[in-house]
Amino acid sequence: MVSSLTSSPSPLSVSVHLSPWSSKPATSSNGNASCDRCKPEMTRLVVTPPTSSSLRSLHQGLDRQCIHVGSSAQERRLIIPTHVLCSSSSTSSSPQARVSSRQDDSSSSPFMLLNHQTSADVSDVTQPQASVAVAEADNDPEVLIECHDVYKAFGEKQILKGASFKIRRGEAVGIIGPSGTGKSTILRIVAGLLNPDKGDVYICGKKRHGLISDEELSGLRIGLVFQSAALFDSLTVRENVGFMLYEHSSLSNERIAELVTESLAAVGLKGVEERLPSELSGGMKKRVALARAIISNDKPGQTEQELVMYDEPTAGLDPIASTVVEDLIRSVHINGRDAMGKPGTIASYLVVTHQHSTIRRAVDRILFLHGGKVVWEGTTADFDNSTNPIVRQFVDGSLRGPIQY
Ligand SMILES: Nc1ncnc2c1ncn2[C@@H]1O[C@H](COP(=O)(O)OP(=O)(O)OP(=O)(O)O)[C@@H](O)[C@H]1O
């Protein structure tokens, strides 16, 4: 059963943040666990989680996120940006209703971590407050995302040093560049999971202040598909793909199950709804993650555009499985057709990749990131013919050139 959110005399703090590595649990002397690196950037939800095994599976599912868990307590504080689950959709929610219909699952499902939270509860504990304001952005309605002179450092390490670029409606853009140059960091900044230290991010012409929130009305849904697929190990494929709808919509469970089946069909998967992620191959997991990113929220007359960002979607796949994923990425785009022959719905996408096949097959325009900036951009054809020494060294894989390891 779900217990009161405020009854515990000794709350335990559990934090989840987006980090490129897993961290070991850390407990402070007062028994509360927290993460100093991420605290200022978290959306906080006060929750009563189910069991420690659910938290473990959450940890495994999120893979590259860090979760700190202290010892047992009746109440815990979970700090998790909900769009970690691939959506920033501003759907309405009816958490209480959802909780009451799913209380029996409380011992095993991370759904219960988030469900019994009202918007008022969330805003009470959110820091910093996310908001958007109309700013002096370029008023081109075709520009969905604009990053202007973005800087980001981690400790002493300056990663982004004035990165600027635009993503227009209908574009299929690849971000490439040497390892550690900040490609994933850019995705997290665009997704609103990280704040830039300096510089501006505009979403459909509106300047973003702070981190994105579920309440934000940006006119653009932004999905992020993590390299690891980030599926919850203890949830079935159906629960993973439908997570945001179970979470943030008032749709019936039957309707969500139908939408999950449709979304899986769009990525060429059938009859896997009740399987656990451990029963899937690496390529299937990536397709499930894609299905989760593109699932429709079934809102009648919904016109909100969607941008999906893929972080190394073909890493670790064999060449044929890579081709399948690359074609799927194309197929769900507005210029493509999905596995069911339906036109794709994704307005634009951004792919971080190191793989030549992905650049060739899934991308039309390339941004080359080096030294914290976009140092080159152009079409894939321009890329092949470029005489830019940085691009040439990267294409040739040469040890000699301006890129030093
Ligand atoms: N939360 C964080 N705290 C500290 N350092 C971080 C954090 N996130 C990223 N970094 C560091 O920032 C740098 C850029 O990381 P990022 O993952 O963005 O690079 P990348 O270009 O995507 O690399 P790769 O191609 O190897 O995946 C790395 O040195 C990384 O260690």
Automatic annotation (TrEMBL):
Biased composition, class Polar residues, residue ranges: 24-33
Biased composition (Low complexity): 1-23, 87-100
Stretch list, region Disordered: 1-36, 86-112
Domain ABC transporter: 145-396
InterPro entries found in the cross-reference section: AAA+_ATPase, ABC_transporter-like_ATP-bd, ABC_transporter-like_CS, P-loop_NTPase
Gene3D superfamilies: P-loop containing nucleotide triphosphate hydrolases (3.40.50.300)
CDD domains linked: ABC_Org_Solvent_Resistant (cd03261)
Record keywords, A-Z: ATP-binding, Nucleotide-binding, Transport
PANTHER family named in the record: PROTEIN TRIGALACTOSYLDIACYLGLYCEROL 3, CHLOROPLASTIC (PTHR43023)
Protein name (record): ABC transporter domain-containing protein
